[in-house]
Design a protein that fits this description.
Blueprint (H helix, E strand, L loop, with lengths): L2 H18 L5 H18 L3 H28 L9 H25 L5 H19 L5 H18 L3 H31 L1
Length: about 190
């Protein structure tokens, strides 16, 4: 456990807690957290996770812009749901992208746990995009990512990060429940 991991841990808790509450202030914490985790994962030879952090910077900026625009238009951060067809396409896309990325990491790098790392990374990409778009389904993906990450980080000895993902798991369950409640209220208001 390093000082870098401790700071990233604290930023992560702040970030996801604010996301659950639908606070736009989650984004500065998220940007700082992903910058630190890029280094942590690179040092741990979890290359998919390290590359994922670069992607997260871009999607964090997009999410910040999208949430700001939504709040300006609606007066609050609203949430929505995917259609069944959209859910199926996201699932198929995650499976195909995970297989391709996992193959590449397995074949061309010395990555630790290339297949698991790839599946977690790709599912995280989908979850982050859906979160930026304020889709409730992002929480289901984060729950899956958190469960897989707990095992992966335990295997790599990233104990504090493993604990962080345990906290993320609890926050994802809370986020799912809260965002579903907000969606029901929005539906009644319409």
């Amino acid at each position: 456990m390093s000082a870098l991991e401790i700071v990233a841990f604290l930023l992560g808790i702040a970030n996801v807690s604010l996301v659950v509450r639908r606070s736009i202030w989650n984004y500065p914490f998220g940007l700082a957290m992903v910058a630190l985790y890029a280094r942590i994962f690179l040092d741990a030879r979890l290359y998919s996770d390290a590359i994922l952090q670069v992607f997260f910077v871009v999607v964090q900026i997009y999410g910040w812009w999208n949430w700001s625009r939504n709040r300006a238009q609606a007066g609050a951060i609203t949430v929505g749901r995917l259609t069944r067809r959209e859910r199926a396409w996201w699932a198929i896309g995650c499976l195909i992208a995970s297989a391709i990325w996992g193959y590449g990491m397995n074949r061309f790098t010395d990555a630790a746990f290339p297949w698991a790392d790839a599946a977690i990374a790709i599912t995280s990409v989908a979850a982050q995009i859906l979160m930026s778009r304020r889709a409730i389904e992002n929480w289901w993906l984060w729950i899956a990512v958190d469960i897989g990450s707990i095992a992966l980080y335990a295997a790599k000895g990233l104990w504090l990060t493993m604990v962080l993902y345990g906290i993320f798991l609890a926050l994802a369950v809370w986020g799912l429940i809260d965002w579903q409640r907000v969606a029901r209220r929005q539906a009644v208001a319409v």
